[in-house]
Amino acid sequence: MDPISREPSPSYLPIAGLIAGLVGLLLGGIALANASKANKAVTEAQAALATQSERINGFDSSIAAAQSTAESARSSSTKLVGEVNSAFQQVATEMAKINGEIAKLQEAASKGGAAKAGAAKSTEPAVAGPGEYVIKSGDTFAKIARAQGVSLADIQSVNPGVDPSKLKVGQKIKLPKK
Length: 178
Description:
CATH class of the domain at 125-178: Alpha Beta
Largest sheet: 2 strands, antiparallel
Shape: rod-shaped
CATH superfamily of the domain at 125-178: LysM domain
Number of strands: 2
Oligomer: single chain
Strand content: under 5%
CATH topology of the domain at 125-178: Membrane-bound Lytic Murein Transglycosylase D, Chain A
Distance between the termini: 184 Å
CATH architecture of the domain at 125-178: Roll
Helix content: over 70%
């Protein structure tokens, strides 16, 4: 045997293996730390996503509630507009009736009221025409009926618009035919 080969030669292989193992262990630790940080970041991102999702769902429900409220308000306003239009139509109909009645009264006043207006402007006492009687102080339908020789019921029937309790001096009433 060769004397040189018998001598133990220093082997760097185990030391190189040990150094490689330590470097691998160090790189594995760094990788584990980075993986831990990444896992933490993913967890935080998932939590933030869940929070955003809840907020979006909250917005969705708020939007749905607002849409429902808006639809209800639109329906109520449409109903109210219909009721207001109906009320205006009723008022217009009543006003047309009243205007018609006013026109009739004005026409009647202009026809029959011209004579009465002339008499009212005059300072002379009212004079009864044929078949008329001018009320004097203290007159009642009963007194007038006795004085004229007619029945109380006849005087009342020919003067349907006259209130016997509100007779005024100078007022003309009709007398029934005898």
